[in-house]
Amino acid sequence: MVEWDLTRMRLVLPGLVLVQVFTSIGLVLGVSLLYEYIAPRQALYLGTGAVAISMVMVGVVTGPQMIAEQRLSGSADWLASLPVPRSASAAAATVFNVIVALPGAVAALLAAWIRFDVGLSISPQLVPAVLLVLVCGSLIGYAYAHLLGDAKIVALVAQVLVFIVVGFSPMAYPPENLPGWLATAHTFLPFVHMANVTREGLTQGLAENVALSYLVLAAWTIVAAAGATWALGRRP
Amino acid sequence: MNRPSTDISASSPPSFEVTDLYKSFDGETMVNDGISLRVEPGEVYGLLGPNGAGKTTLVKQIIGLLKPDSGSITLGGYDLVADPSHARQLCSLLPQAAMPIESFKSREAVDLAGQIRGGDRRGVRTRRRELFAALDLDEWSDTLGTNLSGGVRRLVGFVMTIVRPGPLVILDEPTNDVDPLRRRLLWEQIRRLGDTGAAVILVTHNVLEAEKSVDRLAIVDAGRIVAAGTPSSLKAGDRGHLRLQLMMTPGRPVPELPDFVESETLVGHTLATVVSERRTTDGIQWAQSLIDGGVAEEYALGATSLEDVYVRLTGHESVSV
Q1: How many CA atoms lie within 13 A of A160 on its CB side?
Q2: Secondary structure letter of residue B269 according to DSSP
Q3: Is B107 in contact with B128 (CB distance < 8 Å)?
Q4: Which chain A residue has its CA at the smallest distance from B99's CA?
Q5: How many other C-beta atoms are found inside a 10 Å radius of the C-beta of residue A60?
Q6: Is there a contact between B65 and A73 if contact means CB atoms under 8 Å apart?
Q7: Helices of type H across B147-279
Q8: Tens-digit pLDDT profile for residues A174-200
Q9: Secondary structure string (H, E, C) spanning A173-218
Q10: Cβ pair A34, A172 in contact under 8 A
């Protein structure tokens, strides 16, 4: 099934990766244009946050848009009629997202390093952090795309999520910058925790409460997997 | 329950049966209104009906994408309503929509589909070569789906479906967009598919073609089976009769029908009537008088076909070849 999904997307894959790379670099450079001076700590936040944002966007925006497209083209029924476990389809989507997201994440990191000369401290924790962020993000996207069903609504939610993730999630800036109630809300949402575990793998002393972040992300992963399983198993 | 075998040669093929199937979407309009049918192994069973008759809804329930309000769907000992994963193992579907193979070379799409259905790589490849040769598709073997014409893409989708068929194969409008020459090759393969022991459900509104290829058929209209049987048995009532078809002049009212017209159906500007062979002369004279009076533009007299039965029962014209 993974081979099917990768072959299915191979014509669009280079384009998607390229867009992802440019978006990630653009995020780092674009935000830095807003300020005359960016302090090293801010730069580190921005650079590491952009890495996480880049990965999250693939899972919660690009992935669901692909599923919506399948529904619109009518091919979703055929895919659903294949004799493969539903988990194989979710795994294939996740592998695809990982392949699309990683080059963009690396590009964001390089852009931050070159632009701000930030002092990175890459640790082995980066590997589980990146995997968890990608799997969690992919499953959230996969789940809501199948739960909502209607392709137009999925596309709309994906657009709203771009807005929320880029502008109103404390991923590339500290939560203190947000109004209190919104910062509190984000302690329950996955986005800030995705940035936190990524940051822990890339820096020293910048990430806080990492254990809590892993816990929240694990919970979101389980809830998203359960939601996707339920949505795929339901028959109207 | 054991995992069902997807290989029709693995054991004696099972019968497929739908019993008293009811399905509504809003609780009021019945999309399937008490459908019952049985398809034996090796049988090609036509499901004919106009758009909106409920054919696709029935197919979606068979493959486990929709749940019936009530009724049963079984294949051998397997209850496909209770366990839709068995339906996915046992049923091979060619959907009406195009297969998502834009990025695949034709041969890759078939080989992967066969392997996903549980076939071994070598066996699938051998069978794909046979089917491509039989359907005259060899020249497109290495062509990407995005560069295929609609008809060739449809045929590749057909090969993807039957390269490793389950005990039940469902073909939803398999001849759409296919050129007349390859259509004949396609029908031949559908026939042979039945000969391998698969039960084949053929969903179509192309009555003329289906008449030559199906063993039995059901005509579905407004969610119900309005007639079922062999093509010959359905046409039995029309023996000794001819079809007199008139192209009416647009804007002119349909004239009163003479008493020798035994049945009539108006679809668009085409008035299809059935008359007894003994009254053929009267029929021709009547048609000629309508043309002389400007009410009709032309007429055609011919043998009755399954299409006449179809038109009479559903009030719809079928798709012509």
Answers
A1: 7
A2: T
A3: yes
A4: A75
A5: 28
A6: no
A7: 150-162, 180-195, 207-213, 231-235
A8: 888 899 999 999 999 999 999 999 999
A9: CCHHHCCHHHHHHHHHCCHHHHHHHHHHHHCCCCCCCHHHHHHHHH
A10: no
Whole-number Å distance between alpha carbons of A207 and A48: 10
Measured between CA atoms, how close is B290 to chain A, in angstroms?
47
Closest CA to B280 of B256, B297, B304: B304
| Gap between the terminal Cα atoms of chain B | 45
Q: Which positions in chain B touch A235 (Cβ < 8 Å)?
A: 64-67, 84
Task: Answer for the pair A220, A138: CB distance below 8 angstroms, yes or no.
Answer: no
pLDDT of residue A161: 94
What is the three-class DSSP state of B48?
strand
Which amino acid, one-letter code, is at B113?
A
Given its phi and psi angles, is residue B71 left (phi above 0), alpha (psi -120 to 50 degrees) or beta?
left
What ranges in chain A are assigned the alpha helix state H? Answer: 2-8, 13-33, 40-57, 63-73, 75-80, 86-116, 126-148, 151-167, 180-188, 191-202, 210-233
Give residue B272's identity as a one-letter amino acid code. A
Taking contacts as CB-CB distances below 8 angstroms, the residues of chain B near A7 are 103-104, 108, 112
Residues 111-150 of A with CB under 8 A from B: none
Measured CA to CA, the distance from residue B280 to residue B301 in angstroms comes to 9
Q: How far apart are CA B263 and CA B257, in angstroms?
A: 10
Q: How far apart are CA B200 and CA B215, in angstroms?
A: 10
User: For tokens 């502008």, what's the residue?
Assistant: A167
Instruction: Specify the pLDDT at position B1.
Output: 44
Tell me B103's DSSP state: T
User: Closest approach of chain A CAs to the CA of B116, in angstroms?
Assistant: 7
Cα–Cα distance measured from residue A187 to residue A44, given in angstroms and rounded to the nearest whole number: 21
Please tell me what DSSP assigns to residue B240: T
Residue B1 DSSP symbol = -
Quote the distance between the C-alpha of residue A168 and its chain's center.
Answer: 15
pLDDT tens digit string along B38-61? 999 999 999 998 888 999 999 999
| DSSP string covering B250-268 | TTSPPPPPPTTEEEEEEET
Question: Do residues B45 and B199 make contact, with C-beta atoms less than 8 angstroms apart?
Answer: yes
Q: What is residue B303's three-state secondary structure? A: strand
Strands (E), chain B: 16-24, 30-39, 44-48, 70-75, 78-79, 91-94, 168-172, 199-204, 216-221, 224-229, 241-248, 261-267, 270-276, 296-303
User: What global pTM score does this model have?
Assistant: 0.84
A70 in reach of chain B (CB within 8 A): yes
Range A6-15, long-range pairs (CB < 8 A, 24+ positions): A6/A92, A6/A95, A6/A96, A6/A99, A7/B103, A7/B104, A7/B108, A7/B112, A8/B100, A8/B101, A8/B102, A8/B103, A8/B104, A9/A66, A9/A96, A9/B103, A10/B103, A11/B102, A11/B103, A11/B144, A11/B146, A12/B103, A13/A99, A13/A100
* Cα–Cα dist B31/B52, whole Å: 8
Q: How confident is the model at residue A71 (pLDDT cuts 50, 70, 90)?
A: confident
pLDDT at A84 over 70: yes
Cβ of A82 within 8 Å of Cβ of B116? The answer is yes
